[in-house]
């Protein structure tokens, strides 16, 4: 049984792309309070089903798949550049394939401008018109306006005309940054990308018996099931181990594990995988903020998703990627790591940032543990000392040393040198993840 919140989200998703929606309209259509409608619309915005634009309203946009997430809608462009829509509002849901900077002669400009493009240009009225007729949207920089004829043309062609107070270079930088951020998001898989929805999930009710478990086990061959109330609220998990030696008429709620570990839609797949390995579970229930079951993921789903992500050809580089790219392993017996500090890793004073330094030590520690065949590990806590500032373009030498190791924890000491001068020390504790 779906909640009011879920029904509103399903209704929004069923609306045609480009439709305008409002809190009042949703509240009236779905017969709910305006507060409930507002919360559902904000959730739809988080799920990238709608986009809200100042002075325009909220419009239904196409939900993006992972393979084309780096393509932005014109509605998102408006928000990125803090723009004003001059015309073509009904086309804001469309995605742009490329953007063209209009810093050339009109004829040359039009050679690069085609359908699906976004022409970024100043107050060149003829260029605005020609771009629209070529099927491209227009972003006017410097806060300039355009003619009424061009606005009417944009409305008739459903091609947005947007004005922003920023200059052309700044706008291009902002859009590039947004696309780059999208590429990073594309590389990070979330539970919502891979989970098995509630409609396809085998579940048991808390007032059913072990006999029902055995029947469901025969039908599906699954060894674990979420246990829910009749309102689909998650109350437990039951596995084959829980029912061994029990009577068939015994209630599920008597043998289930109460308050089970659960995940959310916004949890990363990598995080879910680590947690499942750490806790020794094969099936993770996925719930919303009200603990209503949304679906499940299995350990096999996680492994397949991570393998798929590694095969994706495009990705955006995070600070972790930048640090890993600069790590060079030296020495066969004793592990020594060489590392170059690039400008992206520095703070406002030109010295290596705390975040980059921490990432470097965590990566070196993980590498040292893998050399000892201890598998994956996560840094639990750390104490770091900067003895001397480390400037950009410096080449560091990192020497890790394992102080103590148990079945689940490792304590490690680090010394960091710059041209044989000690510049930093650290003590870190790692949690070992069960394989």
TrEMBL record:
Keywords: CBS domain. CDD domains: CBS_pair_DRTGG_assoc (cd04596), hot_dog (cd03440). PROSITE patterns: CBS. SUPFAM superfamilies: CBS-domain pair (SSF54631), HprK N-terminal domain-like (SSF75138), Thioesterase/thiol ester dehydrase-isomerase (SSF54637), Winged helix' DNA-binding domain (SSF46785). Residues 197-254, 256-318 form the CBS domain. The keyword Secreted does not apply. It comes from the Bacteria. This is CBS domain-containing protein. It comes from Lysinibacillus macroides.
